[in-house]
């Protein structure tokens, strides 16, 4: 059952031919488009490494059929920076040591971007820990991750006001 | 994963036609179905994608004061909805106590109701499980079963319904709207689920082709808004299924409980409305003594299905805790740790 879908990924239209409807968004991003920033940890919705934005909302790309998203806007970690200028969440992860090995980091960053748009810049440290609980870090960089998200939230608020 | 045919109908009527074919499954958020397909536990011949059915996306207050929630409304959108937060705060709290931010953005009302048990033997296509095929037997009976049912189980199946959202729905007497090849019907969430019996495993009462179109919260459920909580005990503070959970709602007047609503999660194959406990509270003075009596009544028929006798006492304690929290009043704003026993106190409304 061949299917042709079109996805707008990080601002570029991509036509993708699928031999059958099985591929997840995660597999299409990595295997077809060649965007390997999005990671496969568990492939079962349990770790958050595969988090991307679909139409601006964070989801687990491993539990989403690509065919169902025909026409959607996808943002991956590759699409966050503006040229050499990092997204505030990316910058804050570097500033606050929000990682060790880095495997979970693209998912953490995309999840944080999604979270900050959900909370509207008002989240407490506790709310951020709760809101980021769908992203596991086997290196245990959680303290830095929390600080990074808090700092990004503050910086985004500051930039918004100036 | 086996391959399958894929259809994306544009109307509910077309979806029902496609969904009525043997071997067809509806695809909503995909967060449970794809997981089970990857495990080889579900092998549908075709998926009927219902994600673009506009008819199922709306949250609509009705003339009679009830609130009708379309089956494709995403869990996160529902939890953030103003009417839900105002009138049915325990529903919002339960939604936010479930899964993760990413999963809630994908998971839908219908899919949450229809999600399958998390029993490890059900999840393993090679274990004996009557939910794979009635008559196979149940490996959980002699296996790892510390999280299994203490109410309403039989040796056919001891799995529990894992949903948080469904617990306050059961307490509030939510109605499930179903459409299908034989027309539409509306049933209480209590009757929507079947408990296991001597030979049949638990499940929903949906027939092949039937689709959940909406869930309605009755208008009389609003009177609990000032005192409504959902408390969930889990292995870690967030992103884990309930060991036990409780929705507790009180309507208090002249110092006495005029009406109480109670349901338990993680204890049975369906969200467990505890009517005996509600009866025990009616007319009583809100306080520890009455809550303890209610908890004893709720678990009076409980028995361990395996290595899980502790869940009976845990369920009582969580229910008492939820009743106390409800009596203290619904917090003015959602706790930062929704549904958590570690939630820090906030001013009541
Ligand atoms: C890691 C992880 C952690 C989780 N933690 C929690 C938790 O703590 N608490 C909790 O409550 N849940 C939890 N969940 C489960 C999650 O809530 C469910 O996966 C989700 O609600 C299912 O909704 P969906 O729309 O994705 O359903 P789908 O996966 O699309 O469908 C699930 C089932 O429902 C059927 N279906 C869907 N919509 C309809 C409809 N309208 N009519 C008829 N049938 C329909 C499908 O055919 C399928 O059989 C967790 C899931 C994961 C993966
Ligand atoms: S790879 Fe998707 S959640 Fe782990
Ligand atoms: S930095 Fe190594 S897994 Fe998180």
TrEMBL record, chain A:
Keyword Calcium: no
Domain of life: Bacteria
SUPFAM superfamilies in the record: 2Fe-2S ferredoxin-like, CO dehydrogenase ISP C-domain like
Keyword Iron-sulfur set for record: yes
GO MF entry, a single one: 2 iron, 2 sulfur cluster binding
Every 2Fe-2S ferredoxin-type domain range: 3-80
Keywords: 2Fe-2S, Iron, Iron-sulfur, Metal-binding, Oxidoreductase
Listed InterPro entries: 2Fe-2S-bd, 2Fe-2S-bd_dom_sf, 2Fe-2S_ferredoxin-like_sf, 2Fe-2S_ferredoxin-type, 2Fe2S_fd_BS, Aldehyde_Oxdr_Iron-Sulfur, Beta-grasp_dom_sf
Name of the protein this chain belongs to: (2Fe-2S)-binding protein
Automatic annotation (TrEMBL), chain B:
PROSITE patterns assigned: FAD_PCMH
Keywords of this entry: FAD, Flavoprotein
Residues annotated as domain FAD-binding PCMH-type: 1-222
Superkingdom in the source lineage: Bacteria
GO molecular function, one term: FAD binding
Name the record gives this protein: Xanthine dehydrogenase family protein subunit M
